[in-house]
Amino acid sequence: MRRVCLLVLDSLGVGGALDAAQFNDLGADTLGHIATACAQGLADVGRKGPLRLPTLSDLGLGLAAELSTGELPPGLEVPGRILGRYGCASEISRGKDTPSGHFEMTGAPVFLDWGYFTPDTSSIPKDLLDELSARAGLPGVLGNCKASGIEILTRLGEEHLRSGRPIVYTSVDSVLQIAAHEEAFGLERLYEVCAIARELADKYRIARVIARPFMGRDRGSFVRTGNRRDYSIPAPSPTILDLLTAAGGTVLCVGKVGDIFAHRGVGRSIRAHGHDRLMDATLAAWDGAGDRTLVMTNFVDFDSVHGHRRDVAGYARALESLDARLPELLSRLMPGDLCILTADHGCDPTWPGTDHTRERVPVLAVGPGIAPGCMGVRDSLSDIGASVAHFFGIDGTGHGRSFFAQDELSNIS
Ligand SMILES: O=P(O)(O)O[C@H]1O[C@H](CO)[C@@H](O)[C@H]1O
Ligand SMILES: [Mn+2]
Ligand SMILES: [Mn+2]
């Protein structure tokens, strides 16, 4: 029996990207800067002192970070013995966005340029917005600029309630985000508008349309809800989700993963909000998973709740909480099981602005029969997909190299 659990700690970069300067991210280091702030007592909100990640440290997270930047993040000192195979990987896709990271780690790096809405005002082409209003029966839209999601609600949320116009905005990523009040505008209506926007955005090669529902009565009380939904462009080439499904295996996606892959190669998608619920859903999926099953979960709050909001203490708290839940999963790994933890890009909460940061990502692999040790600095996140294919004994996508030795897996039951 062979099963793989792939956990994406969304935005947990470990610095060190050789091309970071091209993204104005030279020196960005999500994990390193969080750990440093914690060690300096600068992240003592709802937690205290140095970052404590005993399980992730045992799996080699600190060493993976040291491999990337040359510096061991404080608090992530080398434990007595490493439990897993650790390393880090550079991203070769052109963008530092979520779809690029997820596609690349599943064997489909993105070499084409997404389309971007760049200007700060009138960002989104008039044709697209006119057609969206016509087809969705909207009285127009608000926003139409590059913005941060919370700030724009404060600025335009009340006008949205008065006018019924949804708020459209973009970021440094290839995204068209649409915010609307979950009750006043309606959640299903927002999803319908986003589905139309997805069709219209295709010709501009926009990677994602994102529904951003929110609640609250006024600018002081607006909050985004957990009903966010992503409408992605499909991966540019087959992923291991496609190949495993075609080979008769099963792909179970937890959280926003199914949406990211536009549900291609996805057997079942399980929605859950908040890291604890996401972990509960992962454990439930894992407990019911049979032979040749891939369970893939994205822990989105690191990025959306803490990284983009530049909330260092919150990010540290979320890391410590997830770390405390990991033993529940690790204790369920039986012979023939493999668990890989990684990230899709960085989002350094100490960095200027509110956007993602170009960084390497950690790659931690653990399971009975997987010899602990170092897998080095990997050339691409696609090495993860190649390793998963190798583990399942199926053809890979042609991108990436397995971090397992050729004959290493033959003795695993
Ligand atoms: O500021 P909010 O709405 O959270 O947007 C963020 O979320 C998007 C998806 O990760 C990114 O493109 C970034 O702009
Ligand atoms: Mn992401
Ligand atoms: Mn993000």
From TrEMBL:
One of its GO terms (molecular function) is manganese ion binding. Mn(2+) 2 binds at residues 303, 308, 356. Its cofactor is Mn(2+). Pfam families: Metalloenzyme (PF01676). Signal peptide: none annotated. One of its GO terms (cellular component) is cytosol. Residues 3-395 form the Metalloenzyme domain. Mn(2+) 1 binds at residues 10, 344-345. Its EC number is 5.4.2.7. It catalyses: 2-deoxy-alpha-D-ribose 1-phosphate = 2-deoxy-D-ribose 5-phosphate; alpha-D-ribose 1-phosphate = D-ribose 5-phosphate. Pathway: Carbohydrate degradation; 2-deoxy-D-ribose 1-phosphate degradation; D-glyceraldehyde 3-phosphate and acetaldehyde from 2-deoxy-alpha-D-ribose 1-phosphate: step 1/2. SUPFAM superfamilies: Alkaline phosphatase-like, DeoB insert domain-like. Binds 2 manganese ions. GO terms for biological process: 2-deoxyribose 1-phosphate catabolic process; 5-phosphoribose 1-diphosphate biosynthetic process; metabolic compound salvage; nucleotide metabolic process. It is found in: Cytoplasm. Its main location: cytoplasm. Keywords: Cytoplasm, Isomerase, Manganese, Metal-binding. The keyword Translocase does not apply. Isomerase that catalyzes the conversion of deoxy-ribose 1-phosphate (dRib-1-P) and ribose 1-phosphate (Rib-1-P) to deoxy-ribose 5-phosphate (dRib-5-P) and ribose 5-phosphate (Rib-5-P), respectively. Belongs to the phosphopentomutase family. This is Phosphopentomutase. It comes from Desulfomicrobium norvegicum (strain DSM 1741 / NCIMB 8310). The gene is deoB.
